[in-house]
Design goal:
heterodimer, A: mainly alpha, B: mainly alpha, MetI-like fold
Chain lengths: 301, 318
């Protein structure tokens, strides 16, 4: 025991994550993005609880009213308060973004890990599938599937939850390919390294090799891809809602609000501007965080 | 080279078949009959409905319908629209010019913006110019195109009154005035699409040029006494453009799907708008044809990108 103690050399405590955090802190835009994202996240989580005006209160005397002290973001054509709707819509946008990201990362990591670890014919088949998914026309397929299966998921899981699950599975299921490719490429490189041979030599099973030895080494790649995919998923969901094929009309998602606003651009442009800015700022913050993480964790490509 | 081409083609063709099968399966699995409208119409008896189904070939099993559809598609016969009863091919031909106009010009405009800005921002890395350009690019692809479109309408149509609000599809370009009208109404949709495209491309060009600038051969060329301009023009750009050119090809299908949204914002009657209308009307033959055409575009331009890459970069192993 004593011997061991003397041979350990005092090294300054540092690892990838601490170094990464140090670099991340110095990136002003990434910090700006993080702070902004925290503000947006807490606003949409706690906002609807605190904010006194109801989302669904229709008041035709206040139809399309411009921003005022009573209604900071104005009202829409039905006289509903825009701020309340944006706060509630934000919950859906963020939830869809995060849940789709989890689906995409899970699928991508799993497929990439299996392909990269086993190589050979397994790799060949999985990569052909990945290529096929990359060649699918994403937006048209999304529109088509949501349209066709909207009613049946509604019957199974209810109007709001059903659509939520459908959209999340679809966006996630059409966006795992880049993660799979990244994970696979890193696995191919890593599995030839000595620490893997060492682990193999002492009898580690494939599942242990994959999840205990290889996976932590690709975590930084996955984190960056995950961050950027949240922004992507938010845009995709808003696009669906904007085309009128997202959540049911009474659910105020940001894309849906823009869809409704497009008929009032002349008379009440504020109906379009606020939800649009909400999407823009959220996605911008996420992209800055993702970019900052990429630089901080020193990932080329 | 010939062998490489054949190999790529042998990958591309099964991919196309697979895409068509996937689209077909989705439509076959979907609940609800494409003839749902007829089913709920009390004026149509069960017998008549059965005859309509037969005349449309809907009484046969799915795989037979698939083969029939696929063989007909190869011959250019995409079936008839349930809704308008006219051939799908004719509908597409009607709608295609509007889409091609917007996509084509947006593509060229995007390249014209992205190339100089991307190269300048790489050469002057960390300068104020670079900061402004990269920020602009970052904003450009964080803002969803449909919001840019609405903003443009609010600013340029509603406030400034420069451009018309809604695209007039009946406009015929016959003389000078109608040409100006056409240009005026096309500027906003083209700009929206071009800006998004340029933002993505610009970042890519910048990083590609930056990577080449760090290479040893650049230092050698500068040490030989070549001017910076000559080094960049003759050495750096040639190498930096290899990945960029392939991206330019890969981006074309993305522009077509981007046009889907732009057409909806500005109410341009292109194929994207046709797809959305047809989805709403359950017009299966049209939906299938358009979705498959998007798939063909992707596979085709993937093939082009591979080939261009092979021609430009002799290091690629065939």
């Amino acid at each position: 025991m004593n011997l061991l103690k003397t041979t350990t050399i005092e090294t300054p405590k540092s690892n990838l994550w601490q170094d990464g955090w140090k670099r991340f802190k110095r990136d002003r835009l990434a910090i700006f993005g993080t702070i902004f994202m925290l503000i947006i996240a807490s606003a949409v989580i706690f906002g609807p609880l605190i904010y006194p005006i109801s989302v669904n209160k229709v008041d035709f005397s206040l139809s399309s009213a411009p921003p005022s002290w009573q209604h900071l973001f104005g009202t829409n054509d039905l006289g509903q308060d825009q701020l309340a709707r944006i706060l509630l819509g934000g919950r859906i946008s963020l939830a869809v973004g995060i849940a789709s990201m989890l689906v995409a990362i899970f699928l991508g990591t799993f497929i990439g890990a299996i392909a990269g670890f086993y190589g050979g014919i397994v790799d060949g088949i999985l990569m052909r599938i990945t290529d096929l998914f990359l060649a699918l026309p994403q937006l048209p397929l999304l529109l088509l599937i949501v349209y066709l299966f909207r009613e049946s998921v509604k019957a199974i899981a209810g109007a709001e939850l059903g659509i939520f699950i459908l959209i999340v599975l679809l966006i996630g299921g059409l966006n795992w390919m880049s993660v799979a490719r990244l994970v696979r490429a890193n696995f191919l490189k890593l599995r030839e390294m000595e620490f893997v041979s060492a682990a193999r030599a002492i009898g580690a099973k494939p599942s242990r090799l994959i999840w205990i030895h290889l996976f932590p080494n690709v975590l930084s790649v996955i984190i960056v891809a995950a961050t950027l995919s949240v922004g992507n998923a938010i845009i995709t969901e808003s696009t669906l809602s904007f085309l009128g094929l997202g959540f049911p009309p009474d659910v105020p998602t940001w894309g849906r609000m823009l869809f409704e606003a497009k008929d009032y651009l002349t008379s009440a442009p504020h109906i379009a501007i606020f939800p649009g800015i909400a999407i823009f700022l959220t996605v911008l913050s996420i992209n800055y965080i993702g970019d900052g993480l990429r630089d901080a964790l020193d990932l080329k490509n | 080279m010939g062998q490489y081409f054949v190999k790529r083609l042998l990958i591309a063709l099964p991919t196309l078949v697979a895409i068509s099968v996937i689209i077909f399966i989705i439509l076959a699995l979907a609940p609800g009959d494409p003839l749902g409208e007829f089913a709920s119409n009390p004026a149509i008896t069960a017998e008549v409905r059965e005859n309509i189904r037969k005349s449309l070939g809907l009484d046969q099993p799915a795989y037979i319908r698939y083969f029939k559809w696929f063989l007909a598609f190869l011959k250019g016969d995409m079936g008839y629209s349930f809704n308008s009863r006219s051939p799908v091919f004719e509908l597409l031909i009607q709608r295609l010019p509007a889409t091609l106009l917007v996509v084509g010009f947006a593509y060229i405009l995007g390249l014209l913006i992205a190339f100089p800005l991307g190269i300048i921002s790489a050469i002057k890395q960390y300068s104020a110019t670079d900061q402004i350009i990269t920020t602009f690019a970052f904003l450009g692809f964080s803002i969803p195109p449909f919001f840019t479109g609405l903003l443009f309408i609010i600013i340029f149509s509603v406030q400034l009154n420069w451009f018309p609000f809604i695209y007039n599809s009946t406009l015929q370009v016959t003389d000078w005035n109608s040409l100006i009208e056409q240009i005026k109404q096309s500027i906003m949709p083209i700009a929206v699409l071009a800006l998004y495209h340029a933002a993505v491309l610009m970042r890519f060009i910048r990083s590609s040029v930056l990577e080449e600038l760090q290479q040893e051969y650049v230092r050698t060329a500068l040490a030989k006494g070549l001017t910076q301009y000559a080094v960049i023009k003759n050495h750096v750009l040639r190498n930096a453009m290899i990945p960029v050119v392939t991206l330019i090809a890969l981006d074309i299908p993305a522009l077509f799907t981007g046009a889907l949204v732009t057409e909806q914002v500005f109410r341009i009657p292109g194929i994207g708008a046709l797809l959305i209308e047809s989805i709403y009307r359950s017009d299966t033959p049209v939906v299938m044809a358009i979705t498959f055409i998007y798939g063909i575009l992707i596979v085709f331009f993937n093939l082009i990108a591979d080939l261009v890459y092979g021609v430009l970069d002799p290091r690629v192993k065939y």
